[in-house]
Structure formats: C-alpha cells, structure tokens
Amino acid sequence: MRSAMTRRQWLGAVGSLAGAAAIARYGGAAETAGAPAAKAALRDIPPYALYAFDNGLNGPDVPALEAKAALLKKLGYAGMTDHFNLKRLPQVLEALDKQGLEFASLYFTPPVEAEIDPLLKDYIALLKGRRARIEIGFTSKQFKPSDPAANDKGVETLKRIADWCGDTGPVISIYPHVGFWTHRAEDGVRLARKVGLKTVGVNLNLYHWQAAKPVRPLEELLPEVMPHCMLVTINGIDKGKIVSLAEGDFDVAGFMAAVKRSGYAGPVGLQCYSIAGPSEPHLARSMAKWLEIKKQFPG
User: Fold this and answer.
1) Which end of the chain is more exposed for a tag (fewer CB within 10 A), N or C?
2) 164 contacts: CB under 8 Å, gap ≥ 6
3) Cα–Cα distance between 174 and 146 in angstroms, integer?
4) Which residues are CB-neighbours of 216 under 8 A, at least 6 positions away?
C-alpha cells in the first residue's frame, strides 16, 4: 500500500512526468495530509512516456484486463487510459498496479448543457493521489461546435469537477474532438483560461487537430496550447483514417519535433480508434515506430 503523499512528493512525481512547465501548471494539486492511500507506489516516468488508449486493447488476443495490462508491460508502454465505467475502474487500477503501470486518464463526454453525472465524484475518489487526469470532451445537442454561448456552463462544470478533485488530484484536461462542443484544442484553452486553475488544462490531439477544418497551422497553434497542455495524443493517419504509428502518410515525427521545440516534455497518448484485429501486432508496431521517432527529436 502506498502512504499518503506530501505536497512536495506529489509535485515531484508530476515533475518527473512533465517537467518544470507541468509543475507550474499543476502547482496547487496536492496538499495531502490525510490523502487516501493508493495501491501502487508512484515511479519515475521519463519525458514523453507513451500511454495506450484503451480502444487499442479490444483485440481478441487480450480479452481480460490482466492480459491487457501484461501486454502493455511487455511492449514498454507506461500505462493506459480508460472510459467512464465505475464498475470496471477498480479492476483496471488493480491490473495496472500489478504490472507497475500508470492509469493515465479517465475519458468522459458529458453534454455541456447538462448537469454533471454525480457518479464522477466516485471515480475521482478512486483516483486520489494518482498521477491521472480526467479527460473531458464536452458534447452538445443545444450548442454548435465551439459556440461561446455555452462558455459559462462549461466553466461552471469544470470548476465543480475541480472542487471534487481538490488538492490531491486528479487534474482535468479538456479533450478536443471534431464535432463535439469542444471541437478544437483552442476551445479547451479558452475554457482553461476562464476557469483560471492550474489543475485545468487541455489535450492536444493530432487526429482531431487535422480533422477540424480548416486545419490551423501548427506553428500558430502550439504557442496558444502549450502553456495549458497536459497531454499530447498521436496516431498514424492514412487518408484521414487512424492507423498505427508505423503506417500512414502523415509526418508524426515532424509533428512531435515541433511539439518538443515548443517546450513540451510530458506524457503522450496513443490513439487507436478503429484499428481492427489483435492488439499486440499494432501496438508493437506503434511502439517500435515511437522509439524511432524519439531518436529523431531535436536536441
């Protein structure tokens, strides 16, 4: 069992993951005398640690959570994300803890105009003291993508969730998804600025950046996003379709080189949506390509 972390220990743990910029961003996230114990000790995580989205672990070769976690460990991934599922979360945490892996984030897609599901508070309690994020992609049937008319409601919801997270985490990262109300990374930046908390930031998602037309040039986008960025998500792209990192016609290495030059050194998520077949082959190809990409990073 892990004992409760002090504020200094929590910030140090985050710092090993995302560097000095993340420490400044997460700054207030850990006054912890009395923080609940978690099951696995935090370990040092190098810059650009690669996490797999849970949609990459749907193959018939890994039917059980234990097999999914064992595969990630075998291939060298730092951990995984998961979707909003309270019955499943304790089992996911246990399987990852047994392998010494991290639970990276919980993905949640509430309508911005609706009251937040109170069950989220129970999820947050399970993630206390862990180096994790709540990834929120706001949908809407009432507001068009990026419509600022819903700003107040979005800010209100984010502040409420931030109150639930308190000073011991998890932190909150706004997820851009084409067609959602949070359609672009810039929407997350707008909300994060309005919330004004260091524990609320944004995800930079390669696929959804490319899918939201017109595509904003990366050299314009990065200076706006990076001060708030908590996760960068990548994948291969082949004619607009998500594929493994080893496939496709998009220059992921060039994208990541620009991200690194912008000063980012935090976690990286691997998006695997729509990749069919057994999990091990495509995850192995992606990891091999990722190691190759990192070797090309600018010094």
Assistant:
1) C
2) 120, 121, 124
3) 13
4) 184, 186, 209
Give CA–CA dist 1/273, Å, rounded. Answer: 34
pLDDT at 87: 83
pLDDT tens readout for residues 136-175: 999 999 999 999 999 999 999 999 999 999 988 899 999 9
Check residue 81 and give left, alpha or beta (phi > 0: left; psi -120 to 50: alpha).
beta
The CATH class that applies to domain 7-295 reads alpha beta
Structure pTM?
Answer: 0.86
Q: What are the residue boundaries of the structural domains of the chain, listed by start?
A: 7-295
248: left (phi over 0), alpha (psi -120 to 50) or beta: left
Q: Which residue has the tokens 């972390």?
A: 5
Q: Per residue in 252-268, pLDDT tens?
A: 999 999 999 999 999 99
Q: Are strands 133-136 and 229-234 parallel, antiparallel or unpaired?
A: unpaired
Contact of 230 with 201, CB cutoff 8 Å: yes
Q: In Å, what is the CA distance from 112 to each residue of 192, 269, 286, 293?
A: 15, 24, 34, 37
Model confidence over 195-216: pLDDT tens digits? 999 999 999 999 999 999 999 9
Q: Is the predicted pLDDT of residue 43 greater than 80, yes or no?
A: no
Structure tokens at 133: 């994020």
Q: What pLDDT was estimated at residue 84?
A: 84
List beta partners, residue 205: 233
Distance between CA atoms of residues 224 and 181, nearest Å = 19
CB atoms within 10 A of CB 39: 14
